[in-house]
Write a structure and sequence with these properties.
Length: about 160
């Protein structure tokens, strides 16, 4: 790398002032600054592109390793499923050979499926009821007549 100190830059500026002249020096300095800026941007773009390609290669290697792991898992699941089917077939065959009348005569009761808390009319909020009661938040909607009857001002006789 070029080692430029203040003394070297001052010498370069003095030589440029003598060679180029005081009239053209500001324009030349602007042009040199623009060229240096473009070169810096080009170098940073090249660095970014190299980094992106390196990251892309790393991601491809990761993808391959994840795919290989997924294949291994699927193969192990398939082999376990085949083993289970074999043992299930053996167990059912042994049970059916032994006492098939006893197993088939028992009634099987399956409860009906109910979705837990699936009532769209009841809105469950995150605020607890004890807080709503303390803060005076209405939890039930009143009809118009009920609201008038409840909040009607009392007559003072």
């Amino acid at each position: 790398m070029i080692d430029l100190g203040i003394s070297k830059l001052a010498m370069i500026g003095a030589v440029a002032l003598i060679v180029i002249g005081p009239e053209k020096l500001p324009r030349v300095a602007r042009t040199v600054g623009n060229l240096i800026g473009k070169a810096q941007r080009y170098v940073s773009d090249v660095k970014a592109e190299v980094n992106r390609s390196m990251e892309l290669d790393e991601l491809k290697r990761m993808k391959d390793s994840v795919e290989n792991a997924a294949k291994d898992v699927s193969q192990s699941i398939q082999s376990n499923a085949q083993d289970f089917e074999k043992t299930w077939a053996e167990a059912t065959h042994m049970a059916s050979a032994g006492s098939s009348d006893d197993l088939l005569s028992l009634p099987v009761s399956v409860p009906e499926y109910r979705h837990p808390k699936k009532n769209w009319r009841l809105k469950q909020g995150a605020t607890p009821n004890w807080y709503k009661a303390r803060a005076g938040v209405r939890t039930r909607a009143l009809s118009g007549a009920a609201r008038v009857a409840r909040y009607r001002p009392t007559k003072f006789n």
